[in-house]
Amino acid sequence: MADIHSPSGRFHLHHQRRRVVGTLSYHQILVVVLWASLFACIFVWQRSAVNVLRVYRRGPPPQAPMLRPVVFNLTDFGGVGDGVTLNTMAFERAVEAISKFSERGGGQLNVQRGVWLTAPFNLTSHMTLFLAEGAVILGIEDEKYWPLMPPLPSYGYGREKKGPRYGSLIHGQYLKDVVITGHNGTIDGQGEMWWSKFREKLLKHTRGPLVQIMWSRDIVISNITLRNPPFWTLHPYDCKNVTISNVTILAPVHNAPNTDGIDPDSCEDMVIENCYIHVGDDGIAIKSGWDQYGIAYGRPSTNILIRNVVLRTVVSAGVSIGSEMSGGISNITLENIHVWDSRRGVRIKTAPGRGGYVRDISYRNLTFDNLSLGIVVKTDYNEHPDDGFDPEAIPCVENISFHGIYGRDVRIPVRIQGSEEIPLRGVSFRDMTVGVTKKKKRLFQCAHVFGRAIGKIFPAPCENLDHYDEQGRLVRRSTSQNSTLIDYD
Ligand SMILES: *[C@@H]1O[C@H](CO)[C@@H](O)[C@H](O)[C@H]1NC(C)=O
Ligand SMILES: *[C@@H]1O[C@H](CO)[C@@H](O)[C@H](O)[C@H]1NC(C)=O
Ligand SMILES: *[C@@H]1O[C@H](CO)[C@@H](O)[C@H](O)[C@H]1NC(C)=O
Ligand SMILES: *[C@@H]1O[C@H](CO)[C@@H](O)[C@H](O)[C@H]1NC(C)=O
Ligand SMILES: *[C@@H]1O[C@H](CO)[C@@H](O)[C@H](O)[C@H]1NC(C)=O
Ligand SMILES: *[C@@H]1O[C@H](CO)[C@@H](O)[C@H](O)[C@H]1NC(C)=O
Ligand SMILES: *[C@@H]1O[C@H](CO)[C@@H](O)[C@H](O)[C@H]1NC(C)=O
Ligand SMILES: *[C@@H]1O[C@H](CO)[C@@H](O)[C@H](O)[C@H]1NC(C)=O
Ligand SMILES: *[C@@H]1O[C@H](CO)[C@@H](O)[C@H](O)[C@H]1NC(C)=O
Ligand SMILES: *[C@@H]1O[C@H](CO)[C@@H](O)[C@H](O)[C@H]1NC(C)=O
Ligand SMILES: *[C@@H]1O[C@H](CO)[C@@H](O)[C@H](O)[C@H]1NC(C)=O
């Protein structure tokens, strides 16, 4: 069909007829009309066949539910979902219109099926952004459209470069009651341009996240897909009461630098559940500021529950805590976490100079499938914003429990490395069975670790831990808590 339709084909045909038929131009017209109607018939038939198939397979696309007292469509504000037209103004006008309803329950913006190209825009309070099935919000691939913003106060620094940083594609500050949801529509940052410019060192400023909500509360992000962020994907910063549920996050696992999935940063009361994350850096990374800037800002990440999440990353870890943790990180529960075909399962990372603490962390029911390392604690992650950090600011790492660790094909199930300066206290393991790829000498590596191993633990726990049986009776007290049997082979 495409071949017959091609202009050169038609020209060829036309040319031949003119030579044969000569001056009989009515004949010529007839032929053209006949061909045209034939094409029209085929075209209409094909389209209806496709439509019939679509209806047969999926039924009609579901209508957007009405989640706020007033509902707008992006098209009401001049939006065009053709993948080419820039919709920044339409989004801005929609947000402006919705902000007028903040006293009356807020407003909902439906983004219908289509591809909606846009530059970054800001959200407003009491707003629901609803992405229909087949709706794609596409970030423009030109950094001059991305506004510059001051660095985050707890980082003091653009993170990659000094000075200002690019804002996020979808951004919000000082908001209350914001929902981003839908029927699995997509927000796509077209990160490729940013990743290659970053690699070629062509960017003057730190790349922006895909979605960043700052100093806000009562945020729900659910039932959507986020893909190809320029930098981190979803970054709630100094927020309270955030729920992230049923979200799919996708970036290439190779050559997509710093594309973390979700970075709860100085956040309190947060749930992340039922998510699938497949990215080029940490799947989830809980943070709270960097060295002297994070200590001065002093906002911890606390009361965070992460459950039923499947993750993959070949560069970093499924779920990380740190390395920026200078405001403190506490009361984190992670359960039913599955990490597959990845470099590391879960990791805590810090260094002298960070200050702060990581405490009351509970990991339950972790499944590791084909990893290089399962559980990792690293206390010499020496990456600092500048020379102004205080090397005497020693972080405290304590009360970390691992309960129910399963899996197979893991090269080194455990490497928890404290140091003379940063000992790991109150570490406990209960019920662990992790199959290993090959019999290495050290499968459960520890340094400066204080704590206990309870019940059945495979591979056999390190010497540093006191051993208890299933009933909680002491079997053997450790005499070498400071032993440092780490093996980087
Ligand atoms: C929005 O678009 C849908 C179809 O996608 C239509 O049914 C609805 O009436 C529109 N709503 C408004 C407020 O224009
Ligand atoms: C969003 O709001 C922030 C804070 O007011 C501002 O710095 C930024 O430029 C705004 N972004 C856009 C795209 O208007
Ligand atoms: C949502 O879309 C993503 C990307 O197309 C897909 O991988 C995922 O399975 C979808 N989620 C649901 C619940 O349909
Ligand atoms: C948290 O946010 C949700 C969604 O906006 C809201 O329903 C709930 O009341 C909030 N919880 C608290 C304790 O503020
Ligand atoms: C998310 O999708 C599920 C079904 O997949 C549905 O039950 C739920 O209501 C949706 N949430 C929203 C906010 O639309
Ligand atoms: C997530 O999906 C489940 C099942 O499809 C649904 O019950 C739940 O309401 C959804 N969560 C949200 C916050 O939409
Ligand atoms: C710890 O966090 C959970 C939420 O994951 C919360 O329910 C609980 O109250 C918090 N505990 C304390 C002591 O704050
Ligand atoms: C443990 O987590 C896996 C998913 O990673 C889940 O299938 C399984 O049901 C969980 N087990 C329990 C006892 O909750
Ligand atoms: C294990 O994961 C690595 C890294 O993603 C992958 O290259 C390899 O194919 C996986 N092995 C198996 C047996 O699936
Ligand atoms: C250890 O942390 C858990 C939560 O992760 C908490 O319930 C418990 O009270 C803490 N124990 C100590 C001794 O601080
Ligand atoms: C282990 O090192 C700590 C300092 O990190 C020290 O206080 C303690 O006495 C040492 N314990 C043993 C058993 O050597």
UniProtKB/TrEMBL annotation:
One of its GO terms (biological process) is carbohydrate metabolic process. Keywords: Glycosidase, Hydrolase, Membrane, Transmembrane, Transmembrane helix. The keyword Membrane applies. This is Probable polygalacturonase. The chain crosses the membrane at residues 20-45. Signal peptide: none annotated. It holds the Pfam family Glyco_hydro_28. The gene is LOC103705111.
